[in-house]
Amino acid sequence: MQNSEVFILAIESSCDDTAAAVLHNDKVLSNVVANQLIHAQYGGVVPELASRAHQQNIVPVIDAALRKANISKEQLSAIAFTQGPGLMGSLLVGSSFAKSMALALEIPLVSVNHMHAHILAHFIDEEGFEKPSFPFLALTISGGHTQIVQVNDFFDMTIIGETTDDAVGEAFDKSAKILGLPYPGGPLVDKHAQLGNPKTFAFTKPKVPGLNFSFSGLKTAILYFVQKKKLDNPDFIAENINDICASIQYTIVEILMDKLKLAVKETGINQIAIGGGVSANSGIRKAIKDAEQKYGWKTFVPKFEYTTDNAAMIGIVGYQKFLSKQFETAAVVSKARIQF
């Protein structure tokens, strides 16, 4: 089979979004996501409800992806799926479907590490978006992960810094909860932050050696700060919500940028790519782009569509693995935690 004829169906079901995409080589033909709104009332993702919703959504989502791509299942070259990390029940829905379909169509099965996919999403052929060259540093930031990764090749990656406790997305969401904002709160903090003054309130940045991160102390500091202010003024949050959010976001962005500056200094690599759900944050995107002028870095910010959990990013890893014939048998198992 010629490379020009490669069609990958990709399935992503690691958390609460059921997603399917079809790629023709490194170009996305369709990228369909079904969101699960039921979790909002619980203030977080409920694993059992997530897996049930995946079972309801997976067939119509895959059907929609194939229809939108305007190809038949018989044209598919391989099926890629998220092996992990993620919620076990959710992962099993995607992997079971992928295995069954690959077996029925007699085509290769490709497993994908969800975190690799966030990094390699930059290699999707997208107009107006340049692809990084190797080596580069990837800052992967999401609700469950905060990592600085040295990327030497498609499948040669090393974590050189990571969080010792909370992930950055968790810090945003928990700060939002303290302020009484609904779940998911991270995007709402960003929305209010754009209307506020980031220098209004000062929060101490945690002192963590090397390239690792810590956000639990900051979250606690924000809680105590808000509690103290509310004692003096019960309407403190309502009257200062924009400035509080701006100050929180400013502090978190500073923490991330300080570690990136250190990583560039230690590795000598000044190509920086960001990925993961929190890379949709306007403050982080601006800081990364500003760094090109400030520090002479070359930076890569993904298209919004490829920041949150999506199947297109699974597909691009699937395509690269297809080219190097890294296939799986039906014995491959899903893993809630997976070796990077």
UniProtKB/TrEMBL annotation:
Compartments it resides in: Cytoplasm
Occurrences of domain Gcp-like (ranges): 27-315
InterPro entries to which the protein is assigned, alphabetical: ATPase_NBD, Gcp-like_dom, KAE1/TsaD, TsaD
Pfam (any one): TsaD
Gene Ontology molecular function, alphabetical: iron ion binding; tRNA N(6)-L-threonylcarbamoyladenine synthase activity
Keyword 4Fe-4S: no
EC number: 2.3.1.234
Cofactor details (free text): Binds 1 Fe(2+) ion per subunit.
Family membership noted in the UniProt record: Belongs to the KAE1 / TsaD family.
Physiological role: Required for the formation of a threonylcarbamoyl group on adenosine at position 37 (t(6)A37) in tRNAs that read codons beginning with adenine. Is involved in the transfer of the threonylcarbamoyl moiety of threonylcarbamoyl-AMP (TC-AMP) to the N6 group of A37, together with TsaE and TsaB. TsaD likely plays a direct catalytic role in this reaction.
Protein name (record): tRNA N6-adenosine threonylcarbamoyltransferase
Organism expressing this protein natively: Flavobacterium gillisiae
Source lineage: Bacteria, Pseudomonadati, Bacteroidota, Flavobacteriia, Flavobacteriales
Gene for this chain: tsaD
